[in-house]
Task: inverse folding
């Protein structure tokens, strides 16, 4: 997800990956499978999944090779929700969906998860990751969670931000969960500037793996917007869980989790290079670029930039004093960690990979290259044959 302060170039764009300017964030505002778990367990009881899932009433017993496991609609890319533009409140739902890591049109595609549990904000399309909520430090906002579209219990847990005990979102300590057809309003204080993670904390080991995670950005009161700004969420996937939830012939055990798929903002390369669906870091010479990198997975990821050295300016909402910053080109991002990086687009204009340097994470089920890879792309080279070839692999027609 990106914002920037440059006018549109000739490339066709959508608001899900706007390049219209930081001031256009307001235009972005406003930017799944049934089971037999009916949520009727006692409040605070997080039992029920035990690393496995119940029978899916809507699942087809047909083998995967004979057709898709589900007919849910596909997810959309995450969008930014400017909370100030909608009265500091938003309605959030959990929706079953299908999710493509590599799209049909991209090289090596399609690669998809037959079932995810996506977050849906207001009237936006469901997405994995969920919507990026944006607010200014010092404000208070409400998330109205309506669990009306799913038959599992869920909660919302927000990292870093102030809230009352009952709004912490952990059933085993608050004795509060949102069961099917119930709702709850969570109230948060935007008291910690930075980029933070939110996720479901009911049966976290499975529900987070099913796609129930997103970001909230709290801008400091004196926030100075860069020329370009991006949000990148890293995650690895064991698709056996998703096939099992969809009723397929798969046996998943979280004690033996074995991810083979890796994503940036929910997409794997080459779809990550698609400017409509993926997450290319589009820059122009001389730009000051800010990248918020969040790990929503369970493995560490070594985030690396080619031919650009960055400084870490924020860590988990903590501002790094200038005298403690230094240039680097790889940062290890542990689960739930958040880093904000800044660099200047001062390299020879070109297309430079940005990826996890655990090289097996740059694969699609063992096929290299793929996975957790995107790129810094200079607008100055968008009319080259090389750029056209990258876009062809990404399934982007321009």
Result:
């Amino acid at each position: 997800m990106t914002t920037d302060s440059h006018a549109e170039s000739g490339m066709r764009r959508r608001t899900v990956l706007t390049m219209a300017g930081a001031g256009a964030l307001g235009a972005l505002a406003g930017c799944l499978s049934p089971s037999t778990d009916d949520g009727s367990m006692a409040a605070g009881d997080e039992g029920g999944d035990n690393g496995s899932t119940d029978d899916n009433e809507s699942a087809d017993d047909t083998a995967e090779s004979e057709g898709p496991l589900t007919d849910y609609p596909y997810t959309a890319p995450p969008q930014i929700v400017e909370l100030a533009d909608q009265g500091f409140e938003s309605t959030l739902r959990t929706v079953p969906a299908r999710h493509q890591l590599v799209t049909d049109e991209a090289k090596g595609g399609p690669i998809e998860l037959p079932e995810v549990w996506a977050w849906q904000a207001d009237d936006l399309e469901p997405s994995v990751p969920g919507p990026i909520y944006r607010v200014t430090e010092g404000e208070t906002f409400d998330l109205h969670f309506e669990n009306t579209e799913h038959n599992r219990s869920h909660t919302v847990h927000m990292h870093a931000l102030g809230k009352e005990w009952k709004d912490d979102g952990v059933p085993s300590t608050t004795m509060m969960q949102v069961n099917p057809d119930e709702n709850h309003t969570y109230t948060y204080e935007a008291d910690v500037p930075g980029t933070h993670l939110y996720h479901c904390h009911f049966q976290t080991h499975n529900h987070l793996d099913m796609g129930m995670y997103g970001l909230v950005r709290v801008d400091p009161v004196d926030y100075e917007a860069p020329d370009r700004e991006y949000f990148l969420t890293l995650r690895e996937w064991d698709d056996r869980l998703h096939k099992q939830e969809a009723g397929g012939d798969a046996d998943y055990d979280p004690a033996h989790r074995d991810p083979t798929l890796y994503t940036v903002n929910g997409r794997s390369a080459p779809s990550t290079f698609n400017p409509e669906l993926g997450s290319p870091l589009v820059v122009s010479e001389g730009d000051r670029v800010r990248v918020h990198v969040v790990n929503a997975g369970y493995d560490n990821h070594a985030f690396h930039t080619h031919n650009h050295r960055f400084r870490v300016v924020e860590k988990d909402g903590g501002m790094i004093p200038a005298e403690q910053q230094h240039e680097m080109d790889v940062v290890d991002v542990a689960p739930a960690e958040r880093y904000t990086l800044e660099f200047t687009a001062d390299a020879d204009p070109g297309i430079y990979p940005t990826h996890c340097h655990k090289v097996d994470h740059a694969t699609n089920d063992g096929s290299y290259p793929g996975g957790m890879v995107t790129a810094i792309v200079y607008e100055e080279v968008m009319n080259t044959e090389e750029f056209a070839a990258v876009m062809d692999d990404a399934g982007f027609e321009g």
Summary: The mean pLDDT is 87. Helices lie at 25-28, 171-174, 204-207, 239-245, 385-394. Residues 385-394 form the longest helix (10 residues).
